[in-house]
Fold this protein.
Amino acid sequence: MPQTFRDAKCYRSMLFVPGDKLDWMLKAPKYGADALMFDLEDAVEVTRKPAARNAVATAIKELRTGSFGRFVRVNGWRTGHVLDDLNSVVVEGLDGVALPKVEDPEDIAALDRVLGELERSRGLPVGGIEICGAGAETAVAMYKLYDVCMASQRIKRAGDACGPTPGGDAALSLGLNDATEEGIYFGAYSVLQARAAGIVHIGGSMTAQLDDLDLVRRLAQKSKRMGATWAMAIHPSHIPIINEVFSPSQAEVNEAREIISAFAEGVARGEGAIRYKSKLLDYANARAAMDVLKAARAAGMDVGTVPPFEIPAY
């Protein structure tokens, strides 16, 4: 059976914003992130969670017309908070939710069902709210990532291309809290599982170091080489770097356009493989070139004139 790929809006960057700070959420769009993640979990002290839910709902409503994505990290199952979180934030303008501390596919399946009920009861498009599955946080979740991703077609983004970075829950779960490079092995495994589940929007690894912008760039570049297409950030200063790294260069756009043009001409002649600059091009190269142009358009770049060209399904 041909693999089904889960397409969704392209984001290069996603900025975490504490859910108990309404003024921060309302001004967050000015930092240029393609999506915002309002955090109701780790960033909010327990007694402030009820007020934070109301603040997040207000922010989503006031920002609902923005071109950026609006996501919420809710609290995990077994905390006693997740249903209250969802009841508050599932409103018009919400694009997706992230569920922390996922351990089993059942955690995602349960979230999928609750979201569906809330969408139906509130007149929202059923299935329209994503579940953001990026970044498994425990060894169990990393081991089961494929099954977790297959638990709901709402999951469009997952993986942690360079693996756990020191200081986070995932690194602690694996005993890697003093390691700097070893996490890449686990990252590669997460990319494999996410892609096998049909997910093409692969998350890059995130650093908790606020002021080390060189580290942000190195980590984003390495993540991209490992297959990532986007990354999260916890500080606004990281966003321009992440956007730059995950945007195609003008040279890449020009090359992709030329490949599509040359291959379209070859197909018109009845050829499925052509010579181009001492290389052999086939449909796989054409698909890769189309992905570059799609990412460029999503980043607001002018890709020039591209001939209409249909690529067969895998």
